[in-house]
Amino acid sequence: MNYYKTGQFAKLANVSERTIRYYDKIGLLKPSFVMENGYRQYSDLDLLKLQKILSLKHLGFSIEEIFPMVMDNTDLKESFDLQIDLIEDKMSHLQSLKDALKRASQAPDLSWNMILSLVQLSNEETNIIEQYKNAKNLNDRIRLHEKYSTNKQGWFNWLFEKIDFSKVNRLLEIGCGNGKLWQENKIDLRNREIFLSDISEGMVEEVRNKLGSDFNCIVVNVEKIPFKDAYFDTIIANHVLFYLNDLNQGLKEIDRVLKPNGVFYCSTYGKEHMKEINEIVQNFDSRINLSNHSLYNIFGLENGEEILKHYFSNVERMDYQDCLEITESKPLIDYIMSCHGNQNEILGPRLNEFKEYIEFILNKNDKIVVTKQAGLFIGHKG
């Protein structure tokens, strides 16, 4: 193992000493050793970590987003595979842009449609990173539940079991995410049309690649569903409704495209869901808010039935019995950093300190028990 002073380390990496000192100051890249005389010593492992930081920064990630991605830098293959995938996506996009520019330069008449296509293509580069973030955050949240849930049936298996497929000819799933509901649960698709939709193009592409041509995978905004009236007999919205900009407009659209006697399956959380995780982060730093909105206030187990009764003649509720028993710090931290609040900004510079805090709680109690409060509403259209 080789060690380098700050100046040597910066020169070796072809960055300024100021950059190295800044990363040290904010806690993103601390030296392996600080000698008694104050000199900092960086190692070959620090060089690998710096390489990942610079690569992610070049790809478009913010410093706050990079913190959790380099916290555990021991799996080099996973680190390189991540960078390769993102670079390949970016190269593919740039090649598409290059080809489009060539076609435009050779066209005898440059149409406004062609210019519009170029503008859209030029703007899509930022979507590569956004789509990666969305997919990673969703996977981190699912992974925590899969690993530590005490109910071994699993949420997706339970939800799938509640759907009455004997009445399904045309089904629309709204906000299908990564298609987890359909990956392990198989149904007979003969004489059935299944549409899996999400507002994220990246998610839809991922589902299309995973599930092949058996399903119709499409980009859909719930508030403007591109199907004619009474087209579906079944619609599913798994933990989606509380994200809508206009819940009433979304429900009007769902009602419009659902047939008479059709069935709407929608799941949500209650106010007690994951409350211990909120308590942990609040006790560490009271400024942290894991969600910009209390999702259960928008559409939750407590108010969901009342909201749905405006659109469905009969609404029944089913609760899913479960909790988490977490025994490791990293999956919990990954989950926390995947949330929709301000945690990246506040926790990023203190991530090692936060990890020690979580591990102190785990060593003291052997595990962290977390309440899960989720359930399903089934709305029957009269």
Structure in words:
The chain contains 17 helices and twelve strands. The protein has 382 residues and is α/β, with parallel strands linked by helices. It folds into two domains: 1-100, Multidrug-efflux Transporter Regulator, Chain: A, Domain 2 (Orthogonal Bundle), CATH 1.10.1660; 148-380, Vaccinia Virus protein VP39 (Rossmann fold), CATH 3.40.50.150. Strands 6-5-4-7-8-12-9 form a seven-stranded mixed beta sheet. The chain has a three-stranded antiparallel beta sheet with strand order 1-3-2. Strands 10-11 form a two-stranded antiparallel ribbon. The radius of gyration is 24 Å and the shape is globular. The model has no long low-confidence stretch (mean pLDDT 86). One of its GO terms (molecular function) is DNA binding. One of its GO terms (biological process) is methylation.
